[in-house]
Amino acid sequence: MTTALIDYGAGNLHSVHNALRKAGADDAVITADPQMVRGADRIVLPGVGAFRACRDALVAIPGMVEAMNEAVNKRGMPFLGVCVGMQLLADAGEEFGRHEGLGWIPGTVKRIEPGNPTVKIPHMGWNDVTLAGTAPLLEAGEAYFLHSYHFEAEIRDHIAAVTNHGGPLVAAVARDTIIGCQFHPEKSQRYGLSFLARFLSWRP
Predict the structure, then answer these.
(1) Which residues form the catalytic set?
(2) pTM, to two decimals
(3) Which stretches within the chain are classed as H helix?
(4) 69-97 pLDDT tens trace
(5) b/e 100-124 (16+ beta carbons within 10 angstroms → b)
(6) Which has the closest alpha carbon to 192: 7, 29, 46, 9?
């Protein structure tokens, strides 16, 4: 069993790797090799920062997006996107202009516009994770968030969990063998580690 953690310069790469290992992934490998990603048993895409910068860095690795598509969308390997790694699943992101995403889960990443003007952006700190419909791997609880943009999913069934910060925000999306979390499991202590452990044992 190999868990491929994609290295494209994401700032939370090593903290996610450490959390995966604490959750039981002795096989977790940091890699920028598309061949290793193509043959992995499960794949994790981390990410912090701006949507465009993360997308450009991922696309800049020759063959990486193609390898991800083959492993996940053709062979059905379990996939986890974390924070911006989740946002990249969308059709597009609107941070610093409109930019194309992977298009794996229909939707657009937009700036958080809270209904209450006193609510601060970015959404930072611990907040509730509330299950929404079918939510593979997720449990209700509290997790750590840090983001100014959020995933507006087009299909309700793809929303796995929500949180609230001046209004409802998507906390996780999912379809088939793909799951993405807006919260940071690597910063969410026991809640985050138990979520990662469930991902590592997931057999969708």
Answers:
(1) 83, 184, 186
(2) 0.96
(3) 13-22, 34-38, 51-59, 64-68, 84-87, 189-200
(4) 999 999 999 999 999 999 999 999 999 89
(5) ebbebbebbbeebeeeeeeeeeebe
(6) 46
